Batch of 3 targets.
Target 1
Amino acid sequence: MVNQKGLASYCQECGACAARFPDQNASGMDSRFVETVVEEIVRTLKKDQTPASASFNPMVPLGVSNRHIHITQQTLDNLFGEGSVLDKYRQLYQPNDFAAKQTVTIVGAKMRAIQSVRILGPIRQYDQVELAKTDAIVLGINPPVNDSGNLDGAAPLTLVGPAGSVYLPHCAIIASRHIHMPGSDAEKLGVKDGDLCRVRLHGDKPTVYENIRIRINDSWKLQLHLDTDEANATGTICGMQAEFLGKM
């Protein structure tokens, strides 16, 4: 799943790969990037060969979620013009989800702004801006840590597009850590929707993360979602694996 720029097709352009592997170029992936992914695959294969009598923890694919926006049709029209549609830029890991070509500037209460924040499709029934804590500090806001779709206490932001701007009084959250999975994987892992679990990250700074929300939908593929702060804190990037440690 690699495009001509050497990025995974579902990349959200968080910048981690560019920072960690600065000599990537348009001809393909940097060799150290390939080595990192191969190391993760070898680690997983070794676990698969563990004798049945030994302990074994399943591995879950990791995806790093950069700041992004989910948007309603009305807000899209206000920002880009009446009758606008989201144009697909890149397919994301989960079926039917995609990064749109459209980006906007988001502005906090103290007139601090972050430019080129990408909209993810398809169109939603609510407007939601998902940030990392570092983003929130830059913007001068204090959003809550919520599950996606829960806008209780969400912080205000102004979205600025080429055709206009929209003030959203409750839109910005820091998304709870979570794992997407189909029911078949949930059964194998012994979890149900809404359970909280623990995972171990084997990056440059190995870490155990707790309070990982289980989210189940048969249309999804198995994947752990971390935001950029969480991934950077452990030295992990997309394509690596997290060790599933079970329910809390």
Note: The helical segments are 16-20, 31-48, 73-80, 133-139, 183-189, 228-234.
Target 2
Amino acid sequence: MKNMDANLSLFGDAALLSNELICGVDEAGRGPLAGPVFAAAVILDPAKPIAGLRDSKKLSEAKRDELAVQIKQHAMAWAIAQCSEQEIDTLNILQATMLAMRRAVEGLKPQPTLALIDGNRCPVMPFRSEAIVKGDDKVEAISAASILAKTARDAALLELHRAYPQYAFDQHKGYPTALHLERLREHGVSPVHRKSYAPVRALIV
């Protein structure tokens, strides 16, 4: 595994490069106090370019949703995976994130020969991987993965809101906002809260 911090936008222009089949990988949801952590992996199809791919955090919700549809329609392959709150509490968030990423990549058909991972760490996988700091704004395949991971997690938090409306997950998506902390203190810890996170752990008696 290697770490790469160069501008590798050329990888976004083609899934195939020097006989490599390249996927981009990113996660969503490491910071929240509740809900799973998600990861996605995408192999873009160079014959079907998608305009406007960039870091999902720099896109509006409407634009993310629009691009997610295009990615699913036009990518050569894509997969979304997650690790549950229980896995996060058992493994810790870093290891759970790595596991979600590995699950996403293993869900791709065809399987890539090279995985480009957003960040400075790579999950253990049976083929080559390269970590790219800020890769979600440098590599189109990673941008696409960040969009799929983010939209999938947001959809999951809306489902949690329907199950636990008292926490207002539809507004804060599980992040430790003032509203979330207020509702957490008022209603206590739910089954979908991450009990290893300090603000949640402090309320467990």
Note: Residues 181 and 188 are 10 Å apart (CA to CA).
Target 3
Amino acid sequence: MDEVQGWVQSSKVISNLSFEKSDNLRPVKSLFAHIYRVADTTPFPPILTIPYGSKVKLNETVDKGERWVQIELVTGEKGWIQRGDIDFAPKIKTLEEMIAFSKKFLGLPYTWGGTSSYGFDCSGFVQMLFKEMGFLLPRDSRDQAQCALFMSVKQEDIQPGDLVFFGKTQITHVGLSLGNDEFIHSGVTELPMIMISNLQSGKYNFQGARRIDPLMVNVYRMNFQ
């Protein structure tokens, strides 16, 4: 998807086309969700813990309000998840909703190469946020700055929802503007975590800002469908 190559042990890879094509897949909306062997938290420890956005296959897609929901994992293994961990009716977020949503991840650890709530790096965090609005951004901050979806913005004109880019000689870091010179990002300069910083702190070398170009929204989405 990102055209970024990596390596993984073949024993850790599972292909399950019936799972991937199922209409009963729903994402996890908690930062972390435990999957249990039985519909109870006490007899056994969780089978595993999955991060935000992971897909599980529901036996029933209607939220009946019951605490426990039986699910199937990509391995074919059955398990139980608590209802509050599942987004039964996922929808595309607006820009304003995405900005508020970004703060849900404050305090999660910085992880180089990370793209999940197990740990994000700066561009992985931004990529995830824009995916919530239906946009698939490039993986790296430099490529995000060149993305056709955006137009350049002067520093004095930055608004909430704009992307802000940093680096000494070239772009190496990205964050999301919250307005009033504040931006949220996953970094290590102050603390190794997702945090809110200030453009005027002197700790970051501002390189530029980008804003979604309204004229490019439909074109960009069409190219990535």
Note: Helices lie at 17-20, 95-102, 122-131, 141-145, 217-223.
